[in-house]
Design goal:
The chain is an alpha+beta fold. It has one domain (6-49, 58-95): Alpha-Beta Plaits, CATH 3.30.70. It has helices at 15-22, 27-32, 62-71, 73-83; strands spanning 2-10, 38-45, 52-59, 87-97. It has a 4-stranded antiparallel beta sheet with strand order 2-3-1-4. Strand 2 and strand 3 form a beta hairpin. The chain is globular, with a radius of gyration of 13 Å.
Amino acid sequence: MFIAAWEFVCKPQHQSRFLQAYGADGDWVRLFRQHPGFLRTECMQDAENPYRYIVLDYWATPAAYDDFRKTFRQAYLELDARCETLTEVETCIGRFCSANQRD
């Protein structure tokens, strides 16, 4: 298993739209589901800052994620551009693999 982890701080006036885009059934998940290596997304809200989120995108392997990024590059860039206005901070926390599986 592979996880792409992101931190976001959404703009308060865009919180509901942020959740529509980044939530478990949001815009990003609809795009990711087009690739067979996508497993699921978890959107976790900070317990102390209601505008801060960690988004975890689960993929079968790092290669599946990389293939998705290559195959759906244009759609990814377009959605990323549309969502850019929803956040104050967007940080890639990292790419994580199961300790027992490296691809």
